[in-house]
Amino acid sequence: MVSKGPLLRLLTAINRRRMKLLMGLAFVAYVASVWGNFVNMRSLQENGDQKVESKIEEAVAPLREKIKDLEKSFTQKYPPVKFLSEKDRKRILITGGAGFVGSHLTDKLMMDGHEVTVVDNFFTGRKRNVEHWIGHENFELINHDVVEPLYIEVDQIYHLASPASPPNYMYNPIKTLKTNTIGTLNMLGLAKRVGARLLLASTSEVYGDPEVHPQNEDYWGHVNPIGPRACYDEGKRVAETMCYAYMKQEGVEVRVARIFNTFGPRMHMNDGRVVSNFILQALQGEPLTVYGPGTQTRAFQYVSDLVNGLVALMNSNVSSPVNLGNPEEHTILEFAQLIKKLVGSGSEIQFLSEAQDDPQKRKPDIRKAKLLLGWEPVVPLEEGLNKAIHYFRKELEYQANNQYIPKPKPARMKKGRTRHN
Ligand SMILES: NC(=O)c1ccc[n+]([C@@H]2O[C@H](COP(=O)([O-])OP(=O)(O)OC[C@H]3O[C@@H](n4cnc5c(N)ncnc54)[C@H](O)[C@@H]3O)[C@@H](O)[C@H]2O)c1
Q1: Distance from the CA of 101 to the center of ligand 1, in angstroms?
Q2: What's the fold here for domain 89-265+300-325+359-378?
Q3: How far is ligand 1, taken at its centre, from the CA of residue 303, in Å?
Q4: Model confidence pLDDT, tens digit, residues 196-247
Q5: Could you tell me if the CB of 263 is within 6 A of ligand 1?
């Protein structure tokens, strides 16, 4: 019999070595696999990181643009503004300052170096009209309805808040009345409280359908108190009455401007008056509609002339009403031909039958303004029309991009007919 002792010992020794070797190999394999996983995870993580980074970049890019815009707005160039000393600089409130006339008045007073607060409920006004001043240290814009009281410290108040064109003031006659009555009372109350001077933007409409031509300030007017225009005409008449009651009873300094037809950039597209109607029709290649033979006359002042007149009146010592308008009359047909020529339009002039209550003549007597304020209109009609046409062209482009092109609306309907305003 062969002894198993040394053989077993030999085999055991070989197995141990194998085991060690195998265990060594297993350890190396384990380390290699751990390392492989680690490397894989690293590359996955790197890919993930890249994705996250690109997502963050996507989110941040528009923010970066916004910051750039904000930076631009901080360094925005405002129109040039004069420097006024503390003594000469006034705190001025313009109600209706985001409207057509109010925004031009804002420009003038800001450029003259005053501190201007615009108060507007944006019924017919637009932020766009005064946006070039937003952020300026002398400018403030307040969204407020003058039918509610306002508490603010000011030296002068230009009270313009009121819709002015027939489609706008006839849209809500009760609101028009409230604005012109309660709104005016509120502003006069404010003027009394802070000792400010108030200028009321009144209108030639206080003369109604006049029996005298041209109309001077002593004419008391011919107004139908229950007609479709009464909310505006009578609203302005009672607003004038309120001014003089506050002047006599409370010693408030008042100025009353009776404004005649005015035109220029920033006027309403659906103003309904002959100038804007003709410009819109000519620009859109539509016939220029003339009611009757076109021999009726109208007189229009350019907006910068009016603004100069308002400022001259405010700073004068004339407390009685003053007409501000351009007495240069033109026939409706002349307006149509001139606008067609200036626009370069191929539109035809279409004669429609005469409207029943179309006044034959409208013309201000401005002798008082000339004598007491040294004021008269200076902007030639063609120059003013060219500026208005340029503005309307741009507006049409702007509104076309927004899919909205207003058509001129009839300014006033009587027995189903339109009239020239
Ligand atoms: N444009 C003209 O031909 C003309 C002629 C005569 C008189 N006016 C008078 O001049 C002033 C300005 O006229 P416009 O042509 O600039 O008109 P507009 O409609 O462009 O401006 C009037 C402004 O008053 C604001 N407003 C209206 N009701 C308000 C309220 N309750 N509270 C606060 N804001 C209010 C409107 O939003 C608008 O910004 C008006 O009082 C108008 O009666 C104008």
Answers
A1: 7
A2: Rossmann fold (3.40.50)
A3: 13
A4: 999 999 999 999 988 899 999 999 999 999 999 999 999 999 999 999 999 9
A5: no
Is the CB of 276 inside a 6 Å radius of any atom of ligand 1? Answer: no
Distance 120 CA to ligand 1 centre (A): 10
Q: Ligand 1 within 6 A of 162 CB? A: yes
CB 146 near ligand 1, within 6 Å: yes
Does 294 sit in the ligand 1 pocket, CB within 6 Å?
no
Is 0.90 topped by the overall pTM? no
**Residue having the nearest C-alpha atom to atom 44 of ligand 1:** 164
Catalytic residue at 404? no
The reply to whether ligand 1 has any atom less than 6 angstroms from the CB of 145 is yes
**Digit-coded pLDDT (tens) for 290-322:** 988 999 888 999 999 999 999 999 999 999 999
What tokens were used for 207?
């003369």
Question: Which one is catalytic: 169, 207, 232, 302?
Answer: 232
The CA 419 to ligand 1 mean position distance, Å, reads 21
Locate the domains of the chain by residue range: 89-265+300-325+359-378
Answer whether residue 152 shows pLDDT above 90.
Answer: yes
Residue 269 has pLDDT above 90, yes or no: no
Most confident of 38-42, 66-70, 366-370: 366-370
Which range, 15-24, 60-69, 162-171, has the best average confidence (pLDDT)? 162-171
For residue 353, is pLDDT > 50? yes
**According to the model, what pLDDT value does residue 2 have?**
42
